[in-house]
Amino acid sequence: MASSSSSSFKSNRTIPILFIFVTFLSTPVLSNPLLSDSSSRNQTLRPRHELQKLKRIRTYLKKINKPAVKTIQSPDGDLIDCVQSHLQPAFDHPMLKGQKPLEPPERPKGHDSMNSTEFQLWAEYSGESCPEGTIPIRRTTEKDVLRANSIRRFGRRIRRGVRRDTMSSDHEHAVAFVNGDQYYGAKASINVWTPRVTDQYEFSLSQLWVISGTFGNDLNTIEAGWQVSPELYGDNYPRFFTYWTTDAYQATGCYNLLCSGFVQINNKIAIGAAISPRSSYHSRQFDIGIMIWKDPKHGHWWLEFGSGLLVGYWPSFLFSHLRSHASMIQFGGEIVNTKSMGYHTSTQMGSGHFADEGFGKASYFRNLQVVDWDNSLIPLNNLHLLADHPNCYDIKAGKNNVWGNYFYYGGPGRNSRCP
């Protein structure tokens, strides 16, 4: 970065002393291009503002990064902290203070019992998991927060991200959904890819949504799946993630464990960590299981990942409408289209290929099920499909005896039919 010209202060011998003092104060700011203004002179004149910003960020990091009994280095650069379960961010919540995680609930009837396997890069590389009584948490860094431009924005969807929200023209979806009944959970296996995301402030995700309320300010959602988000994580790895909100993404909720809410019980899965392995075009395919369901006994919403790993739960008191049941279940892909170059983004959804290309090329969801009032997994009836911009990203559904209800979806974004 260019420095201020020295010619402007040669005529006054007292000014260089002041200049050195101001530059010294500004050093932490100038060393980080993410904080710099277009003019270095403005930076030199505003060190106090930037130092105060850094101070706020470091205070926030002390709050969100809990003391670790062990730290594991991941090859993607992540630090995974093993934090005692009762010290995790959830227990900062006033209604959870002094409590401990609940015991696992009864899984829904009809749930396949499988051997539990973790599919994350940090665990695969190190061959380790966190000790019993602790949970793995991806450490948040200054760089993570600085990419979001503000603490308020970090870890949150400021703009709304649910289909049907006409105010969210920059969010595009290719989804399958059911509504018109009372739902107590959902399950699916989701194909994992590494879609290209062309702008730092865009993302590409594949997830299931558990939804209740209207699509106004009282919207409640619970979400889980995988996402590529350069702004949130600083790279292009697909990562296991969760999200929740009770007021349409306005003031409540967050990604992963970046606020108090979700209670984790698992010592092998780090929410927000990279998934490995991943699918390859016209080669090996890899998918993960996601199940969210409401515990009939306590009413909390539980999450299972992979092939049987119980991750934790969202306490029912976090929600308004979801304290009882969901009114819609949604599966599929979502991207953000900022049009930063003046035309439609080339950010990919799923594999980056359209649904018609089928297995090994297009991304898929398979074995779609919902949980009914009797805590039983049942097939879907009356599945609806919707693609906001089918020339950019599309969806095509089917059903057979092996995959049950399934669909292919996704696309490349900008192309000759999606200008």
UniProtKB/TrEMBL annotation:
Protein name: Neprosin PEP catalytic domain-containing protein
Chain segments carrying region Disordered: 92-114
Organism: Fraxinus pennsylvanica
All copies of domain Neprosin PEP catalytic, residue ranges: 165-419
Pfam families to which the protein is assigned, alphabetical: Neprosin, Neprosin_AP
Comp. bias (Basic and acidic residues): 103-112
Highest rank taxon of the organism: Eukaryota
UniProt xrefs under InterPro entries: Glutamic_endopeptidase (IPR053168), Neprosin (IPR004314), Neprosin_propep (IPR025521)
